[in-house]
Amino acid sequence: MSDFSQPSTPxxxxxxxxxxxxxxxxxxxxxxxxxxxYVVGGVLVVGALAAFDAFSRRRQQTPGxxxxxxxxxxxxxxxxxxxxxxxxxxVSALYVYPVKSCAGVRVSRWPVDRYGFRFDxxxxxxREDTGTFVTQRQHPVLALIHPELDYxxxxxxxxxxxxxxxxVSTPEDETELDVxxxxxxxxxIDMGDxxxxxxxxxxxxxxxxxxxxxxxQRSPPEAFVAHLSPADYxxxxxxxxxxxxxxxxxxxRAWIEKATQxxxxxxxxxxxxNRFRPNIVIDGKMEPFEEDTWGKxxxxxxxxxxxxxxxxxDDEESSRPAVLxxxxxxxxxxxSIPNIAQETATRSPWxxxxxxxxxxxxxxxxxxxxxxxxxxxxxxxxALVSVGDQLVIKERVDPPQLASAFLSRISxxxxxxxxxxxxxxxxxxxxxx
Length: 433
Known about the structure:
The chain has 433 residues and is of the alpha+beta class.
């Protein structure tokens, strides 16, 4: 039987060495070959959006500020700028909100106590079953409840169109209830069954009205006052969310109103400052959102004597300070209340849409947020603030680092979608041929 196998002939050494030196090209992993176009495309899309966003958000510099504010159009900026008065920044309006989240009371002159403006957020509506505070966020009808405020005795009645007014007085027994403002568990004096029944009928849920107890103690959130020194503020607040004072400017309001009219395509749309619930309104020769950079403010209090029949005259007048010093707390983040027309309690989306695009930031405590107005603390009680008082800016702070909410969200969605696509195993062909 013949053996047809041939003996193997070894290759020459030189040829073997050359063959071993040949580098075989490695194929790109299939997963990268499949998703690389999406990665490149996503980078290009996000880059294009960033360029478009930077172009559309034209820089509108404020004195002393390094940041920019976007404009929905050049006409919005022009309108707001020309509306500013030629006088120096001064107090143009004062508001007190005796019952938290109800209508405010406009005053021409008002004293400051250790909690802020006298009687400001000294009353609060709470759910009868849980003691949790009730606001316009859940019940816009609160905007139509108007407190009658007495200088000496606080709230003496509540009224709402279509309802008979109800008297408010502190019961003799002064029963204290456990109530909550956000995560703060505090006390409140129950104001009785009559006003509770009236509010329940107006709001539609079982509620009670409570009042600030004597020697009430509640502090601002530590995360919001960490930058302040103990000498900057009185470490006590009543029933506000965070701080005793909220300041906003007429120039900023006018800018937001113009931008909202353009977005809503409604030149009659009005944005009153009562949507933002400020205590102190500033007007004068200033740019929109210039107040964002105000760190420490001195309000120069008028020294004119009060007339005998003025409701704010008291024995402490001669000992009142000449200056109210306010220190920066934070840029005020906004909830859904700016979308509520305070005159009708009706909602519309436009104001917060404007804030979302032009006044959006990443808050260190609250995360993504809209901002309008500045919150302040005070270091001394006894001041008497009047419309017309002038301001002196003693220190400045950095403006909020604003960013387009649209760009931030689309970038985040793209990253999450890309990450998710890598987490799903790729398949070749249909599972059933």
